[in-house]
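Minutes, project check-in
Item: structure for the 399-residue chain
Input as provided by the requester:
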Amino acid sequence: MTPLIWRLLAGRTFAAFATALIPTTLTLALVRTGSAGDLGLVLACELLPMLLLLPVAGVAADRFPARRVVLVADLVRAAAQLATGCVLMAGPAHVPGLAALAAVTGAAVAFGTPAARTLVAAAVPEEGRLRVNSRLGVATGLAQIAAPAAAGSLMLVIGAGWSSLLTGALFLLSALTLGGLPVAPAPRGTPRASFLAELRGGWTETRRHPWFLANVLAHGAWHLAAGLLLTLGPLIAVESLGGEASWVVIAQAGTVGMLAGVWAAGRLPVRRPLCAVAFGAAAQALPLTAFALRLPLPVTGAAFCCAMFGLGVLSPLWETEMQRRIPLEALGRVGSFDTLISFAARPLGLAAAAPLAAVTGTTAPLLAAAVLTAAANLSVLLLPDVRERPARESAFALR
């Protein structure tokens, strides 16, 4: 790999690990207050600005150099986390202050997410993007696994405040690594339109890609289903599959599957990437069905492993196809709609799971989610654009 690619991977890994530290640190810090409402308030204050600002952030990612947007977003997140660390170290958790800092963090996440995708497209030639996206997927997956354990260890040994300070330091490293990343300058064309005009232009560009809209809505279905599964799955595992240890086994099987899928995505001879994406997303119906029917632990663990393998394959292929099919000058705005649906659908599933289960039991919502996930994602195969084979197939089979 070239030094530029190493630098890109290092910067994104720092940011991924830092991002994964935040929810565990806040959860462990606020659980001491004894109020679930405090934790819900702080997490909601991070989520809402993220959702509201994503379309605006997409315009910023296309309007300004992506590395500068990433730099500012990482610096803001670093400042917010360093301040959070100071608040936590000062004494009992000050919920209003933590909520305000969480809102700042959420806003910075909104601006950093589409810009990071655009930065990869600007820095990496098309033939190397799948390889880079696969390695970014492995790094992100490992970060999501390691961060909760790291946050918990820091909390027990030296306190939650130090965990937030470490998070801020990691965002600083990401800013220093990615902020000055040498990329080719964007071609100069016609003068830029107004901000609102570019926002409308992003939606116009999005509608020009039926394959994108169909997939984004289908992905929203499985994110919604994932919210149900992550809420009801542990309850079913504890009650029917052998106790708390059974959920740990299932979760670890899923982790293995996801990492294997991300690793395999760049090595499988995929001829129609969006078809693989559709099947990978539809595989999320397997664990939903297994939990709904209370299938034995080995079967449920294997189903979850297969589903997470599909998700691992899906992620880098989807990123690479977006970067290939959508013009670079519109990638931030179009991609922000993808992120918006993903960020919004999963919390909706998390929130709806318990009320639905209280009324209908756990079986009906999980089976309905399984049918919805499979139908929504397999139906995109009816679109000719989804079945398209890339002109440069070498980009989807690493030699």
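Outcome recorded: The chain has two domains: 3-181, 204-396.
No further action items on this chain.
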